[in-house]
Every structure is written in structure tokens, then in C-alpha cells.
Amino acid sequence: MTNAMAVLGASAIGPLVKFSVAFPFTYHFMGAIRHFYWEKNPDGLTVETQEKSSIALFGASGIASAFLMFI
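^ that's the sequence the OP posted. Answer follows.
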């Protein structure tokens, strides 16, 4: 099985596959950190901060996943 993953990772679609795996992990990890922050600081939980942090979360996850797909 690991040989198949190595071949897939080294193929032409390897970066796309790596991005597709990395994005959900980074998105949910960063979302958990955001949720933990909101639980500790409920005063920071407003509609405006939710919208802004959602956009930032999506963008940061995309950037982190783009970085990880080349490793």
C-alpha cells in the first residue's frame, strides 16, 4: 500500500492529491483552534468576527495546504 501511495505522490497529479488530503486536515485543525479561542473568550464571538475569521480560516488553510502539497 505504501508503495502505491509513493507512486501516486510522485506522479503528475501528486500535488493535487496531496492538496486534496492536506486541505481538510489543515482546515479542521485551524477551525478547532478558532473554536477553542472562542470558548475561552466568548466576548470575541460576534457576527462580524465570525465572518472575518471564516474567510481568514479558509485562506490560511489554502495557503498551508499549498505549501504542504510540495513536501
